[in-house]
Every structure is written in C-alpha cells, then in structure tokens.
Write a structure and sequence with these properties.
By secondary structure, the protein is α/β, with parallel strands linked by helices. About 55% of the residues lie in helices and about 20% in strands. The chain has three domains: about 150 residues, PAS domain (Beta-Lactamase, 2-Layer Sandwich); about 150 residues, Reverse transcriptase/Diguanylate cyclase domain (Alpha-Beta Plaits), CATH 3.30.70; about 200 residues, TIM Barrel (Alpha-Beta Barrel). It starts with a helix and ends in a 9-residue tail after the last helix. It binds ligand C2E and magnesium ion (2 copies). The site of one magnesium ion has 4 residues, from loops.
C-alpha cells in the first residue's frame, strides 16, 4: 500500500510543473465542489425529511381529530373513510388506528400496497425514520382523554427521487465548473510556468554552449521574476568566476607550457634538451628493436666554442649556438631529433636508418654546414664540430652505452684533428678506456708532483749564444719513465686538467727564471707554452700576473707561446687580454707558425713579439726550394712587422746557416741541445760565459 502511494507520488514528481499545478487545482476545486454539493445535499435531505415529518404529523393530527368520534362510537366504517382521505397524499403508504385497548380499529394502505402488511405501530406521540419510510404516531384524544392511537407511514421513495434529481443537478453544475476551472487554470498556469521555462531554457542553453553571458528574459517584478533576478545575479557571479577561472586556467596553461618547454627544450636554442633527448632516444631504441630497424646517435661537440664564448662574450656565444642549432636542424629530416645536451654539445637521433652510409652522409652534411663562416656583430666566426656516431642495435641496445660509444667516437674525431666524424667501432673502447685511465693518472700525477720541466735553449743564430730557453713539460712517471707532452697534453686539454698543469708549469718556469737571474744569468729569457683552454679561462691575465709577481721574475723576460688557431676566432676581448699581458711587459710568441691558417697580415691585429717558424719548414732545408722561399718570406715579413723570428727544430748546421743567412734571429733544435733540466741549462750558460760553449753545435 505504502509502495503504491510512493509510486504514485513518484509519477507525480515526474510530471511537469504545469501538469502538477493543473492537477492540484483540479483536485482542490473538485473537492470544494464535492464538499459544497455534499453539504447542500445533506441540507436538502434534512429539509425534505423535516417537511415530510411536518406534513405527515399534520395529516395524522387532522385524521386523529376526525377519528375520535368514530372510535367512541365504534364506527369502524367511518374510521376507514376518514383514513381513506389520506390517499390525497401520495407519500402516505399506510395508516393504522388502534383503539384504547391497542387493538387495530381501522387500517389504510395505498392502492398499490393493498394486501401488504402494515408496519408495526410505534405508539405514543412519536416518529421514526427508517430506510424506506417515516412513521408518525399520535394519540387520539377525546375530551382530554386518549381514546386511541393513529400511525401514519409515509414512503420515502419520492424524497429519494428528489434527492437523486438534486445530485444530478449538482453534478451537472459541477462538471462545467470543473471544465471552466481547467480552462482558466490552463491559461493561468502559463504565467507560472513561462518564467520557469525561461529559466530552464537558459540553464539548458548555458549547459550546452558553456556561455555564461546568457540571461533569462523574465519580468523581474513578480515573485518568479525575483527568482529569475536571483538566477541572473547568480549567473553574473558564475560568469565572473568563470572568467576569472578562465584567466587563471589560461595563466596556468601558459605557466605549464613554459615549464614544459623548460623541461623539454633548451632555452637558448629552442632545441630539445638533454632530458627530452634521453626519453626520445629510449623510445627510438625500443622502436628499433621492436621493428628490427636501425637507430643512430650522432654526438657533436663544437671544437672552438669556448674561445668564442670567452673572447666575444656570452651573447655572441648564444647567438652562435642558435646558428649551429639552425644549421643542424636544416641538415636532417624533420622526423629526426636534434638536441642540445648542454654547453657546446649537440646530439642527433636518426630513426629508421637504412644503412651506415646514411649516418656518414648526415655527419658530413652537418660538418659542412657548420664549416660555413658565421657573421655575428661584424665578427667572422669559424666553428667546426667533431662528431661521434653509434648505432642501435649494431653497437648497443641501451641508451647509456649508445651514448658512451658515440662520445668515445667523438673523442676519436677530436683526436684525429677535429672538424671530422668517426663511427664507433669496438677497437675504440680500449682507447677510450686508456684515455679515461690517463685522466685519473694525470690527476694523481699533479697531486704527487710527478711533472717536471725541461728547458730547450734558444740560440742567437748570428752569435750562437743562448738567449733564452723554452720550458717543456714532462711527466716523470714512476714506472713508465719520462712521458712526453704530446701523450698527455691533449687529454689534459679535454678534461680541463691543463688549467692546474699550466698553472704549475708557469709558476715553476717563472721561479726558475728568477733563480737563474739571481744567479747572474741575467740575459736569459723564458718561453712558456699556453694551451687554448688556459687563454680562455676566466681571470687568466690576473692569474699570470699574480704568478709572475709571486715568483719575483722579470715579466719582460717571460714569453708566452700561443698557436695560430688560438688567434683564429679572436675577438676584442681576446685581444684585450693579450694587450694586458703585453702591458705588463710579457712577450708573446706565435708557436708552430705556418701550420695554421693565419696570414702574416692577420697577425698585425695582435701584439705579437715573436714568430716561431714550425719545424716542418725547417726540416727539409736547405734542399727544399719551396721551404726556403717560405722561411725567407716569413722572416722578412715578420721583420717588417717588427717581430722577432725563431726557427724551430734546427737539427743540422746547414739548416742553421741558411736560416742565419736569411736573417732569422734565433733558433732552437737538437743541433744545439735537446730539452734538458735546469741544472744543465745553468751549466751551458755558465760555460758560455767562461768562453767555452757547451752547446752541441759549438
Ligand atoms: P713546441 O712548443 O713546438 O715545442 C717544441 C717541440 O719540438 C718539443 O717537443 C721539442 O722537444 C721538439 N723539438 C725541439 N727541437 C727539435 C728538433 O730539432 N727536432 C725535432 N724533431 N723536435 C724538436 P715536446 O717537448 O715533445 O713538446 C711537444 C709540444 O708539447 C710542444 O711543442 C708544445 O706544443 C707542447 N708542450 C710542451 N710543454 C708544454 C706546456 O708546458 N704547456 C703546453 N700547453 N704545451 C706544452
Ligand atoms: Mg713551444
Ligand atoms: Mg713549436
């Protein structure tokens, strides 16, 4: 029962507000009309009953008065006649007269009821309503004394009939009333539902379009209008919040995009960064294995970026990196990945590569693209790159090993003279390991002071006298003996160990110079080799001046040897450094002159004092005409630029006399002396002073 009621209510709940309103109103007006009709019916029934009672009583009273004589005279026939007069009232069904002894004296029955038994007599002055009739009983009195009783029974059928008609009349009135109410309500409920529908429509439209600027168009004066106004006000607030939220989301998206860029892209070049590169390479390796394809990693390291960065400044350095990034990107397919791993390191992933020749071709293209001159702020900058290549699955099937192999191959390329590429092969592993071991050993050698300096005399070619020495570093290995600089300087340059080693060399050489001078060998000059890495080191000039000052050596007797390649990309900052050194009295020499690319006129830009002709030009003298011409040209041009000339690698007296004939200022080579220790130099100089030369050539 409860469930049914609940189901009914659920059905009602599901109905539209209009329907609910209509039903509620119809129910209410129906109930009101029914109650009204019912009340009228009750009143009507009561009035009819009362009227019937009144009338029947009157009839009984009139008949009773007329009957008293008939009873006293025991005249039953006239009694019956008197009763028969009741037939004028169609409602009277029976009448019975009892005498004083309660015996039936006379009866009457309506014609249609003749023969039926009369209802029981009530007696006394009484009446009773039963379902079918009204019985009224009255005493018959004669001269104050009851002589009998009369009972008149009235049939209720006609009363019922009248009531029936009455109900019908009420129903006939109620039905049109309900219909009219329905029609009126249907019209009226629109006033209620229209604003609700407007609100609903607006809500739906907002949900569908997400446009919080929509508003419900409802007259705001009525109560639903108030609701609509509240609704619109709420929308205002939501719209505002939505806008604020949108702004916030936009902002958050921007920040997230920025973070994403930072997380995956290099901020200088816009290329992918190391992090992204690793992910991408891992995916490429997985793909290559899954689909039996080949993926290739190219590891690029710019050969002379640091020099550019340090001499021309970081802005130029960044611009150069961007140019490199652009050129690399243009050198590969759009599906390949180009990344900057940091500093001057770049890497490329080639996926789905047909054969090894593709990697070679890409490496070549990249190297050629980078070899083009870069012009930034009026400076012509030359960069080159060393490239190492490793492949998956041929070389390795995991990211760290692939990278390590590409790195190894890259170092091979650097060792092979830079500006080239090398494809990894298993033989390189040993060399890489050797280099790795070498680095560790060098570090220890520095700690344990295993480095020593030897000095090679520089001789004035005209007089044959020692005018200076060049300091050359050696590694006095406890087991392997003396190790030459060619074997460890390149590794030290790669790892940065050249900085502390160079520091030690300069300091030791300066102290030695000071010692010699203190010992009276005052004419000696000291030449010290510098590596590019040292020159580009932050605070290099200050360090040099500090060392010189600390040692007490005369800076004017110190000569620092640079190579042509260091001057190649020199900018204003680099020249300023050289000027600062010169300003302090320190001399500058160009070592191995002729092996680089710089022309003599190019040297004019630099405050150079000395040019050292590379021994490769000296080697074939005096026979080689071309070398003869070259050395002569170098000497005369250097002199015209007020530079001194030192010839390196003089091994024969023929070489020495030819160079002397060409006005070369001084020479250095095995002809005079191999690099020797400081004591030996002291002895040689002292011997010279005493008139006897200890030099081999003498
Ligand atoms: P370099 O500065 O050109 O030094 C001259 C090299 O030629 C020395 O080799 C020397 O022993 C060698 N040499 C001298 N006379 C002759 C000769 O008549 N014939 C031949 N064939 N060779 C001769 P070393 O000592 O092996 O040094 C090699 C290079 O290592 C140097 O070339 C220099 O570039 C570098 N180096 C040496 N010491 C240092 C140092 O302290 N710092 C730096 N950065 N580099 C250094
Ligand atoms: Mg040198
Ligand atoms: Mg040299």
């Amino acid at each position: 029962m409860k469930l049914r009621a609940r189901l009914r209510f659920r059905w009602l709940n599901r109905q539209a507000v209009g329907t609910k309103l209509k039903l509620a109103n119809l129910f209410t007006s129906g109930v009101v009309i029914l109650l009204g009709g019912g009340l009228l019916l009750v009143l009507q029934t009561w009035f009819s009953g009362a009227a019937l009672l009144e009338q029947t009583r009157n009839e009984a009273a009139v008949a009773g008065e007329n009957l008293s004589a008939a009873i006293i005279f025991n005249d039953q026939a006239s009694a019956r006649d008197i009763l028969a007069s009741l037939k004028a009232d169609a409602d009277v069904s029976h009448a019975t007269v009892l005498d004083a002894g309660q015996a039936v004296f006379a009866t009457y029955a309506r014609a249609d009821l003749a023969g039926s038994t009369a209802p029981a007599v009530l007696g006394g002055d009484d009446y009773r309503f039963s379902l079918r009739r009204l019985s009224v009983s009255r005493p018959i009195v004669y001269q104050g004394k009851q002589v009998g009783t009369i009972q008149v029974d009235a049939d209720l059928a006609s009363t019922y009939r009248r009531t029936g008609w009455y109900v019908l009349a009420i129903a006939l009135v109620m039905l049109p009333c309900l219909l009219i109410a329905h029609a009126v309500l249907t019209r009226l409920q629109r006033f209620v539902t229209a604003p609700l529908h407007a609100l609903a429509r607006t809500s739906e439209a907002i949900s569908a379009q997400g446009d919080f600027s929509l508003r419900a168009n409802v007259d705001p004066s009525a109560d639903l209008g108030l609701l609509a106004r509240a609704f619109n006000a709420m929308l205002d607030r939501i719209e505002k919040r939505e806008l604020a939220l949108e702004c916030e989301i936009e902002e958050r998206k921007r920040v997230e995009a920025k973070l994403d860029r930072l997380a995956h892209f290099d901020s200088v070049t816009g290329l992918h960064n190391r992090h992204f590169f690793h992910d991408r390479l891992a995916a490429a390796v997985a793909h290559a294995q899954g689909f039996e394809q080949r993926a290739v990693v190219l590891f690029l390291d710019l050969d002379n970026f640091k020099a550019v960065n340090d001499t021309l400044g970081h802005d130029t350095g960044d611009e150069l990196l961007r140019v490199v990034a652009r050129r690399l990107t243009e050198s590969v397919r759009s599906s390949d990945t180009v990344a900057r791993l940091g500093g001057d390191e770049f890497a490329i992933i080639l996926e789905n590569v047909a054969d090894g020749a593709v990697a070679d071709r890409v490496a070549r293209t990249c190297i050629d693209a980078l070899a083009q001159v870069v012009r930034i702020d009026g400076n012509d900058i030359y960069v080159s790159a060393s490239v190492g290549i490793s492949s998956c699955p041929t070389d390795a099937v995991d990211v760290p090993t692939l990278l390590k192999f590409a790195d190894t191959a890259m170092y091979e390329a650097k060792g092979a003279g830079k500006n080239t590429y090398r494809v990894f092969h298993s033989g390189m592993q040993g060399e890489a390991r050797k280099r790795f071991a070498m680095n560790g050993k060098l570090r220890r050698a520095l700690e344990q002071e295993q480095f020593v300096l030897e000095y090679q005399p520089q001789v004035d070619l005209a007089s044959g006298r020692i005018i200076g020495v060049e300091a050359l570093v050696r590694w006095a290995h406890p087991e392997l003996g003396m190790i030459g600089p060619q074997e460890f300087i390149p590794v030290a340059e790669e790892t940065g160990l050249i900085i502390p080693i160079g520091h030690w060399v300069l300091e030791t050489a300066c102290r030695q110079l000071k010692a010699w001078h203190d010992e009276g060998r005052t004419g000696l000059r000291m030449a010290v080799n510098l590596s590019a890495r040292q020159l580009t080191e932050e605070g290099f000039v200050d360090t040099v001046l500090e060392i010189v000052r600390g040692s007490g050596a005369d800076p004017r007797m110190l000569e620092l040897e640079l190579t042509e390649s260091m001057l190649m990309d020199a900018g204003e900052a680099f020249i300023a450094r050289l000027e600062a050194l010169r300003g302090a009295g320190i001399m500058l020499a160009i070592d191995d002159f002729g092996t680089g690319y710089s022309s003599m006129s190019y040297l004019k830009r630099f405050p150079i004092n000395t040019i050292k002709i590379d021994r490769s030009f000296v080697h074939d003298l005096p026979a080689n005409e071309q070398d003869k011409a070259i050395t002569r040209a170098i000497i005369s041009m250097a002199h015209s630029l007020r530079m001194q000339v030192v010839a390196e690698g003089i091994e024969t007296s023929g070489q020495a006399s030819l160079l002397a004939a060409h006005d070369c200022d001084s020479g250095q080579g095995y002809l005079y002396s191999r690099p020797v220790d400081a004591d030996r130099i002291g002895m040689l100089v002292d011997a010279e002073k005493s008139g006897a030369s200890g030099l081999a050539a003498a």
